[in-house]
Predict the 3D structure of the following.
Amino acid sequence: MVVPRWLCAFVALIVVSGCNTARPHGTDATPTVWVSPSPSTPTCTNEKILVGWSVERLALQTITVPVNEGNVMAVSDQVAAGVGGVILFGSTAPTTLRASLADLVAKAPDEVPPFVMVDEEGGAVQRMENLVGDVPSARTMGSTMTPDQIREVGRRLGEKLKANGVTMDLAPVLDLDDRPGPSAANPAGTRSFSLDKNKASAAGLAFADGLRQAGVVPVVKHFPGLGYASANTDKAPATTKPWSILQEEGLVPFRDAVAAGLPAVMIANAVIPGLTTGPASLSPEVITTVLREQLRFDGLVVTDSLTSIAVSRSGYPLPEATVQALTAGADMMMFTALASQVGDRVTQIRMAVEAAVASGKLSRQRLQNAVAHILALKEVDLCS
């Protein structure tokens, strides 16, 4: 079929006009093609600024220091140096805690405040009951309350924590357990909402949601599930149920927590038979492979105490355990110590991290990534 010249010209005119490529009349100029501008790349990000931080500064931000809630200024030097977190210990907090914490946090450099953490789970684990009131144990909540009621308990607790200067609660416990405890033989006990994975998930996530509504960061623990562990890892080395079973049971509440967008996870110190030969908190298989890659978690990863018997008897003194945990994918490290030892412990950790980066054992990029996770959850914008 022969196409008329007028039709060819008409089609060409439409195509050229639609692309805005028509040449200026009476010239041989090359057509100009207009392309929609792509979204501009931010000129400044936390990640770009962290490239300029010293290894010492990066290392300090990954450290959480312990302090008695009755004398929080005991760690003022460490906060002024730039540690990333403070965890409160004790059983009776002073009524002046809020003011004391405000003075402490004000010492942090460059407007990067430390997390102020506490283990306030309810039941057997309450650090500030005199300030926040009596909170039922997880087991009591799980067996007598609806998720909405548990959410309200979490919200009220969170409001009182926030009012007293606490920004992060190392709770809820998502471990599955129905045995007596907590004790030296069983780290969970009444800290567990239920042995039933679905009930524990619904109850634990409701508690966490209540904390978030109040502006307090919840930390779910102890990944990937410490229920029915062979011992309390603070007191002795311990193993969990085999990985093949844990995946079908104990891991479920944590999988649900990640899917729900919860922001922080604490890693257990127990060995996971079939997955690790050492503590989970030092294991890349647990943190990087399972949590980061398989569950696609991109929030903050916190270790349980790296001075626990389970860690020390695995052959890792605190400085070496910190380096191994960072290498495995953790972001923040915790430890316990006497008040007189805290400064030396921080120095030892910092020097070990610096040496590991210098030797190539720990990549600087992994360290920067850890600090990026910390700053993101703190909602710190280094560019502002």
User: Anything to note?
Assistant: Residues 1-35 form one domain. The chain has two domains: 1-35, 49-378. The chain has a mean pLDDT of 92.
